[in-house]
Amino acid sequence: MEAQETNNGSEDIIICRDVHKWYGSFHALRGITTSIGKAQVVVVFGPSGSGKSTFIRTINRLEEHQRGQIIVDGIELTNDVRNIDAIRRDVGMVFQSFNLFPHLTVMDNIILAPMKVRKMPRDEARQVALDLLDRVGITEQSEKYPTQLSGGQQQRVAIARALAMQPNIMLFDEPTSALDPEMIKEVLEVMKELASSGMTMVVVSHEMGFAREVADRMMMFDQGSIVEDGSPEQIFENPQSDRTKLFLSQIL
Amino acid sequence: MAAEVRPVGNPPLPPPILERGVIGWMHANLFSTWFSGALTAVSCLVIGAAAIFGINWILFNADWSVIATLGGQLVIGQYNTELACPGQNCFWRPQVSVLLVTLILGMMWGLAGGGLPKRMGIAVAVILSAFALLPYSFERMGMDVRLLLGANIPALGIGWAIARYTPLGTSRNVALSAVVVFVAILLLVRGGPAIPGLEPVSVRHWGGLMLNLILAVGGIAFSFPIGIALALGRRSSLPVVKLLCVVFIEVFRGVPLITLLFMSQVLVPLAFPENFPQNSLFRAAIVITLFSSAYMAENIRGGLQALHPGQAEAARALGLPSWQTMLFISLPQAIRNVIPAIVGQFIALFKDTSLVYIIGMLDVVEISRAFIQGNPEYLASTKELFLFLGLVFWVFTYSMSYVSRRVEENLGVGRR
Questions:
Q1: What value of ipTM does the predicted structure carry?
Q2: For A190-239, how does the pLDDT look when each residue is reduced to its tens digit (9 = 90+)?
Q3: Confidence band (pLDDT; 50, 70, 90) for A5?
Q4: Residue B93 contacts by C-beta under 8 Å, 6 or more apart in sequence?
Q5: Cβ A147–B324 below 8 Å, yes or no?
Q6: Interface residue B320 vs chain A (CB under 8 A)
Q7: Which domains, and CATH codes, for chain B?
Q8: Are A136 and A191 in contact (CB under 8 A)?
Q9: Distance, CA of B318 to CA of A169 (rounded, Å)
Q10: CB contact under 8 A, B318 and A85
């Protein structure tokens, strides 16, 4: 197995070998081979349609890959439903459009999965939820409904909801793209705090300031492949591929 | 020292007089253009003339005695006739059934602690009790009948107290009690040779509003879960399940209910073993339920389809298995989104119960028609009678849509 130089030699928690994905005849992922170490923060970026969202969605099998191998936390993703459910319990995900459950209060959004999946008693789940809401800075809103909150608050609740399952890995699919500029910061602050706590994070984002400050590693996707993979310094100061240079020049 | 922030820009002004208050409303809604002004004037004339004519007829010209003459027949049909219930008075059985329903309403009030269940419960109990004061002679309407009607108010209170002060007062137990009461009512009204004191009354003699309500409540209670199952089946990835559901839905939606009712008398018996106890009411109930389920399935499927796929995705990403995702995330939202369609379906079902006349059952409409036919001296009162029937149906259907609106408002918190 080819370990990446940026992996610091730590234990690999996500391993992808030659992963392919097609939507009909469209080849969305074209042989992704990489591994991500424990506690690494990886920012994935690239033009739209480059396969970056598809890539992180294959990690918890919201998208099925059709060829290759994905091993998450020592479990290989196959069609075995038990494996998929086991991995989803350990991998939290935050979406661009928040996807909070609008018919449940903030509290019920957070405690649902711990109670139903982890069989946690309600009182304990509520305590966990209150601690998490405190951590993401929304203590007063637990009995409100999601639509009564601002976008930034909703996204922070979504982060708390994912953390309530006590995952080992957190996936972020463009977590700030649907937010007004003044709300992006509050979400990024939460993500920074999470990164510093040692969480393994894979973040699809074009927040280059966040990447420069927090990421251990950045991956540039284009046309279903990883065209560049390295530390933020390397990517920003000395990009190897022309595609990366061009893309960065367009967004920075 | 907190620096005072000077307001920048112009202060807000009240809107112009033509857009405020009563004048504003009238201007916007009634007289915004000369055409709408003319329309308003003409409408007022038409409505006013109709109202004067209508009220005059209702109060002074109409002869409402036909309704008093029919009386209890409208409610129970021929249930209490010598033919149905020889040698005894069976009127108490439907009446006790009504008391049981009031009891359940009281329990719902006790459970909710107020609000809509309280208002509905009180309204139903008071209206039913008021029937005890009808100015019939005591020969026609005995003291026992009046007392049982008046007992609806205490029944409501007892139900309320049961929910308040006994372990029965949980939502699960109240729901279970409702099911028990529904079965108990069927047993009570039907009777049976094995039940002492309850001589069997053939369903041929069930009738009146009682028949409409039994069919409607049974149909609603069963078509809702069957409809959900069909909707899920139609979305299933298993091709055989999907095909079966599609065929079922399309067949039952594609045939008029009246045809189904006709066929039911011939076809339903084929679906059961020969010695299976069944009767025309049972067969009609099955067909009405299945017919309604097919529509229900499409309503719920529509609700499921309107959901953002991110909802199920988020639940799956949290590790919820697909059945829990459906149960806790997708279905509650889907059903909430299609409450108006579902209630519309229930209202249609309630009105359609009148179609059982086609298999010879005397529902409230048919018993009225038969009465006029058998008593030509009342021929002139047909319009009064059917106007009254319209009002009865309207009261029930309007109550249904009123309840659904309130439920929708309560569930509307945090709507997308």
A1: 0.90
A2: 999 999 999 999 999 999 999 999 999 999 999 999 999 999 999 999 99
A3: very low
A4: B188, B189, B191, B198, B201
A5: no
A6: yes
A7: 85-201 (no CATH), 204-270+277-416 (1.10.3720.10)
A8: no
A9: 12
A10: no
